[in-house]
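S1.2 Input.
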Amino acid sequence: MQWWMFALSGGLIILIALVTISFQTIKAALVNPVKSLRSE
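S1.3 Output.
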């Protein structure tokens, strides 16, 4: 296999992880804290 295939797959995995983490962070930042505390 070529070296760029490993680099591409590694970069793709990192990109997917960053998008997932960013989505979860933004979702948590936009939630009303009062609503979150009431449900606990």
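S1.4 Remarks. DSSP finds two helices and no strands in the chain.
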